[in-house]
Q: What sequence folds into this?
């Protein structure tokens, strides 16, 4: 039986009420269909609207554009319930606007925000972030996609890859080089999905099957200069702040998926009988479960501490990097142990642990690969 987060000083009755609403949404509208969506490689576009009706898409965004008031702990409670689906691809695409739209909020003109944000937060339009490039990976400072100013437009040429919601996004927040080399030459532009010269190619993946992932090619795409987000050549800090929140969210997800693995493995160990007794009756299996629970508890403590610090206005980059890596490692360990405990059944499609096992690596790569984040943390701490 899936267990909600244990009592914590960070969660009150308001959080519990929100959690119950999301739980009903997950039970009625997600869990019965997740397997079919995974096999189909997509989920219905109408799901964005349903999530918006519950206020999930707008959580934490400005109310004037259709946002819903809430703290990071409200968002954490929502993510925790959604991870019960054991489907990272569903979360990735359904909430791709949580990385695509913040740069619009922070850097868009009043007119641009008024035009696009209500559409995104109502679920009528899909937002995505396009930063990663075929030749760059996590090296955001060395983007190659070029945007040249031409009167009241920018002309974009180049490619992006591994873009979540890239196939059907209506708005793409694109990082482009407008100046010289390095971080100081990076700008962000909002590119509309029907822009002439934009082509998209679907990518097939190890996991996250129901999340559309694309490679994008920009061939002389003309983008209005009014779609510039922030200052020209000044987008790097904007993107870095965005990545901090993304990494926190990935840590929340990894934590939730690790707990799902423990839950499934625990249930199986109680029900399965081998050599005359239940699996949980074997000391080696009990110890595996305890090790999983230990790592999960340590991750929970780190997550709650870091979430509180960010909620209070801190931006501890090194600690966010370490948290994201630690949570992903917890997910990896718990997925591996759960599949081992389930045995042959853990290798079968249809078990939650099998799907989470396939999705571990994207959590260790997305938002900054593990080694990249370790190096970033080392620099922040003065060791490089």
A:
């Amino acid at each position: 039986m899936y267990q909600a987060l244990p009592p914590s000083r960070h969660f009150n009755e308001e959080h519990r009420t929100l959690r119950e609403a999301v739980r009903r949404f997950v039970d009625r509208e997600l869990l019965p269909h997740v397997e079919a969506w995974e096999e189909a490689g997509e989920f219905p576009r109408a799901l964005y609207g349903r999530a918006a009706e519950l206020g999930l898409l707008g959580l934490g965004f400005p109310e004037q554009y259709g946002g819903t008031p809430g703290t990071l702990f409200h968002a954490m409670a929502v993510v925790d319930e959604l991870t019960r689906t054991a489907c990272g691809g569903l979360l990735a695409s359904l909430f791709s606007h949580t990385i695509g739209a913040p740069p619009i909020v922070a850097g868009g003109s009043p007119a641009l925000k008024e035009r696009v944000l209500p559409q995104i937060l109502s679920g009528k339009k899909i937002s995505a972030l396009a930063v990663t490039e075929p030749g760059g990976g996590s090296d955001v400072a060395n983007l190659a996609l070029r945007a040249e100013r031409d009167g009241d437009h920018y002309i974009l040429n180049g490619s992006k890859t591994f873009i979540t919601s890239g196939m059907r996004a209506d708005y793409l927040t694109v990082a482009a080089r407008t100046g010289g080399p390095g971080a100081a030459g990076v700008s962000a532009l909002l590119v509309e999905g029907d822009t002439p010269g934009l082509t998209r190619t679907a990518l097939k993946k190890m996991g996250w099957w129901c999340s559309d992932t694309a490679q994008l090619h920009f061939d002389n795409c003309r983008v209005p200069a009014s779609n510039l987000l922030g200052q020209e050549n000044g987008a790097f800090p904007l993107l870095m702040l965005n990545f901090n929140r993304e990494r926190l969210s990935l840590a929340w997800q990894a934590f939730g998926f690790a707990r799902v693995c423990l839950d499934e493995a625990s249930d199986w160990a109680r029900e399965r009988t081998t050599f005359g007794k239940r699996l949980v009756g074997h000391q080696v299996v009990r110890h595996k479960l305890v090790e999983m629970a230990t790592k999960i508890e340590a991750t929970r403590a780190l997550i709650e501490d870091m979430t509180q610090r960010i909620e209070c206005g801190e931006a501890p980059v090194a600690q966010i990097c370490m948290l994201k890596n630690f949570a992903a490692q917890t997910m990896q360990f718990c997925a591996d142990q759960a599949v081992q405990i389930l045995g042959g059944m853990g290798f079968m499609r249809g078990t939650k642990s099998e799907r989470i096992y396939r999705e571990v690596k994207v959590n260790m790569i997305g938002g900054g690969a593990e080694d990249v984040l370790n190096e970033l943390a080392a620099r922040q701490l003065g060791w490089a």
